[in-house]
Amino acid sequence: MKLYDFTLAPNPRRVRMFLAEKGIPLPETVQVNTREKEQFADWFLAINPRGTVPVLELDDGTRLTESIAICRYFEELHPEPSLMGRTPREKAVIEQWSRRMEIEGMGPVGDALRNAAPLFDDRAIAGYASGMPQIPALAERGRRCFDDLLVKLDARLAESRFIAGDDFSLADIVALIAIDTAKRVDLVVPEALVHVRRWVDEMNARPSARA
Ligand SMILES: N[C@@H](CCC(=O)N[C@@H](CS)C(=O)NCC(=O)O)C(=O)O
């Protein structure tokens, strides 16, 4: 088993944090430096024609090219501690919150970052070897949507210790990494959102946050 990873990229970090929470050692890893456009090198496109990381290559040659699918694989192999739910209800609730954190959290953050940061000039969407222009209006819209999500999250975390309920789950991982990535474009959790700030502190106290 081999994990194609890039330490500085947010989506592979989900997998590393997930594994750390489960106490599963990191498989053999290969760094693919997306800042140097290594994801478009012939050797990597032969592994993932989509040109994105992470990729988990299984011993039978299967390649998983979505971070959440990789997490699902490890969850099925090592159900405890559960991070994606045990009962049908828990599984559905965690999936609901994970998807919301991805669509309403990481989506807008990605728009805000990739349509504004010089690092992503002509690389506004991941995986396009031929380039993709930045659209500044999308960066602005991303910032607004993210700010809006933080307010909603504050209400949720006023009533719930973790995002999907009483237990830490994949939804917390997706949300934490979106919030950390947002800092790269100076989007920070306002002091008034005390519940989100309490939760961020709790997340950062977990050893897995450094994975
Ligand atoms: N939905 C995919 C997204 C993968 C993705 O976009 N990865 C980024 C790194 S965080 C990447 O490979 N970027 C390549 C690029 O910028 O061209 C997942 O969750 O695995």
Brief digest:
The protein is an alpha+beta fold and 211 residues long. It has helices at residues 10-22, 42-45, 67-77, 88-114, 136-159, 170-182, 194-204; strands at 2-5, 28-31, 55-57, 63-64.
How would you sum up this structure, described in words?
With 211 residues, the chain is an alpha+beta fold. It folds into two domains: 2-77, Glutaredoxin; 88-210, Glutathione S-transferase Yfyf (Class Pi), Chain A, domain 2 (Up-down Bundle). The chain is 49% helix and 6% strand. The protein is built from seven helices and four strands, in the order βαβαββααααα. It has helices at 10-22, 42-45, 67-77, 88-114, 136-159, 170-182, 194-204, and strands at 2-5, 28-31, 55-57, 63-64. The protein has a four-stranded mixed beta sheet. The longest helix is centred in the middle third of the chain and has 27 residues, at 88-114. Glutathione is lined by residues 9-11, 34, 39, 51-54, 66-67, 123, 126-127.
The class by helix and strand makeup works out as alpha+beta
**Amount of helix:** 40-55%
CATH topology of the largest domain: Glutathione S-transferase Yfyf (Class Pi), Chain A, domain 2
CATH hierarchy, class of the largest domain: Mainly Alpha
Low-confidence stretches: none
**Helix and strand run:** EHEHEEHHHHH
How many strands? 4
Question: Major sheet: size, sense and barrel closure?
Answer: 4 strands, mixed
Bound molecules: glutathione
